[in-house]
Amino acid sequence: MGAPEIATAVLDVRNLSVAFATHTGPVAAVHDVSFTVAPGETLALVGESGSGKSVTSLAVMRLTPPAPRTRLDGQALFRSRDGTVRDLLAVPERAMRALRGNEIAMIFQEPMTSLNPVQRVGDQIAEAVMTHRPVGRREALDRAEHLLARVGISDARRRLAAFPHHLSGGMRQRVMIAMALACDPALLIADEPTTALDVTVQAQILELLQDLQRETGMAIVFITHNLGVVAEIADRVMVMYAGRIVEQGEVGPVMRAPLMPYTQGLLRAVPTLTVSDGFVPLTSIPGTVPSPTALPPGCAFEPRCPYALPGLCDATTPPLDDAFDGQQVRCLRWDAVAALEARP
Amino acid sequence: MASFLLNRLIQSVILLALVSVIGFAVLHLAPGGPLSQFALIPGMTQEQLAHIAHEMGLDRPLPLQYWEWVSRLVTGDWGHSYRDNQPVLAIISGRLPATFELMLTAIALAVLLGVTVGVLGAVRRGSIFDSLATVGAMVALSIPTFWFGLIVIYIFAVKLGWLPAGSRSTVGDGSFSDYFRHLIAPAVVLALVEVAIWSRYMRGAMLDVISQDFIRTARAKGLSEKSVMLRHAFRNALLPMIELAGLELPTLLGGALVTETVFTWPGMGRLFLDSLGYRDYPVVMGILMVSAVLVLIGSLFADILSAAADPRIRL
């Protein structure tokens, strides 16, 4: 296998599928997902719980349960600092460990439980440094102090000795970010990093991530179900439903004029504060995400879709269509839907 | 910390008082009594028996007897054995070293083996090793200690002749290796149930920790699986085990009772059963109180150790 071309992207995921082994046979959690992220770019991965967005990110990190419990197909091409391009799904575990926490870092949803409760936060950050850099503890702790200061924690020297339970949720997430930045990663995967935080703290963390990205030029894959956050932080957005990409494109067009009925439903379900002329009912999408073990035939969204056409949508699985301006949509009727949506 | 210790001290005093009342009552409720020993002496008359009972204070009302015993106990006078008139404190302290030797060895074995088996079982969950360890623990838990002790004696002492059948040392041979050879069988028998319990709890604690978010964080840092397991998972899984150690001490004392009897081990457990047979009230009550104090000290140590190991706990 020669070095594949991935143009300027730092990560180029091609036809990623993830299946978990269960008692009743393999269950596909992610199906044929492809996307790229360029340096300095933020890609938002949006979807409800169970849509496959977290599994996608864990598969890229190779943190899904090992084979044979999980089956990974496709490629995840990653460009290292030294310019070499490797398929993350194919490199040996040892090489993957050398990348994890080093060139690719990850932060998680629950800052309350994502830190080791009995280890001082300074040591937890220093551990990330020492794992990948030939430095001693002293030097690693100095770096940890610098990182804590960088993520906006005052009195960093003293905080090194704090245990996680001494810190608030927002502070802990800052510690997680400091840990992720320990080795200047080229790619940061953030799995719902603000979901568990207060709204004001959320905004601070988003701002911090944007600052850090401007400074370091790292790419960010931001997983969220919060469309307000998407509009705030993302350059491009990718909407997932039942393990598949159903719409992707630049954040402006997708948020202004979504083509996929599912994305439209998601946007209508966002509560707004700008109502001046009275009460506007909050719409929800009827039904729930189908279980990956019992996907409906045809389009997976068909049973919940207001535009579904019997005989078509429940019979044919739609491909990911190129719409306009690089926007892609997985809907058999997207042009008809767009025309209907355009009418007031 | 100071208020914690004071609280525990008050609790302990109340607990010891309760143990002493209940122990005393149950002991005197049991049929028979120390007089039946004297009744066996040929030519013993009822008058003489009544006189002995009066001398021993057994003819007084029970609450009064208790009060006399307790008020002497707190001044350090634990009374004298009905059997040989030796001071109770001296008898018990003469037996304690043997019991400690057996119990500490058993604890060391149980912790070492139990923790190792438990951790390996959790890390290789579902493997052949894990299944064997699970079945083995169930078998070990269901084997009665006395029966297992007899089987060990039968195989290793009677049939193979590798180990002595009982007691703490060979008379006239005070060498370390002699003591050690005598210790092996009873320690293993006493440890068996504890190994099973520890391996099960350790496996559970480890699995519990492995599924937590910070283990995923450790992996995402690029740590090797060994570092993740040892530095992050094992360290956290040990915390509940400290509490368990405190709770397991009474079980171990109970086990020592049987094991010491089976292996004619000259410890406190055997002394207890012997004294119970004779209705030697002062010795039985003395051992009861010493055991209760040991258990209380054990749980106090467990709490202090927990607080030292877990920064979230403050005393």
Automatic annotation (TrEMBL), chain A:
Gene Ontology cellular component terms for the protein in this record: plasma membrane
Domain of life: Bacteria
Cell membrane as UniProt keyword: yes
Single GO biological process annotation from the record: transmembrane transport
Record's bilayer topology term: Peripheral membrane protein
Pfam families in UniProt: ABC_tran (PF00005), oligo_HPY (PF08352)
Positions of the ABC transporter domain: 13-267
Subcellular location: Cell inner membrane
Record Gene3D superfamilies: P-loop containing nucleotide triphosphate hydrolases
Keywords: ATP-binding, Cell membrane, Membrane, Nucleotide-binding, Transport
Molecular function per GO: ATP binding; ATP hydrolysis activity
Record-linked PANTHER family: DIPEPTIDE TRANSPORT ATP-BINDING PROTEIN DPPD, OLIGOPEPTIDE TRANSPORT ATP-BINDING PROTEIN APPD
Xref: NCBIfam families: oligo_HPY (TIGR01727)
Family that this chain belongs to: Belongs to the ABC transporter superfamily.
Protein's name in the database: ABC transporter ATP-binding protein
Organism: Lichenifustis flavocetrariae
Top-level taxonomy: Bacteria, Pseudomonadati, Pseudomonadota, Alphaproteobacteria, Hyphomicrobiales
UniProtKB/TrEMBL annotation, chain B:
Domain ABC transmembrane type-1 stretches: 96-306
Localization per record: Cell membrane
Keywords: Cell membrane, Membrane, Transmembrane, Transmembrane helix, Transport
Any GO CC annotation of this UniProt entry: plasma membrane
InterPro entries noted in UniProt: BPD_transp_1_N, MetI-like, MetI-like_sf
Pfam families recorded: BPD_transp_1, BPD_transp_1_N
Membrane topology, from the record: Multi-pass membrane protein
Bilayer-crossing regions: 12-30, 102-123, 135-159, 179-198, 237-263, 283-305
One GO process term, biological-process aspect: transmembrane transport
PANTHER family: DIPEPTIDE TRANSPORT SYSTEM PERMEASE PROTEIN DPPB-RELATED (PTHR43163)
Family membership noted in the UniProt record: Belongs to the binding-protein-dependent transport system permease family.
Name of the protein this chain belongs to: ABC transporter permease
Organism field: Lichenifustis flavocetrariae
Lineage, uppermost ranks: Bacteria, Pseudomonadati, Pseudomonadota, Alphaproteobacteria, Hyphomicrobiales
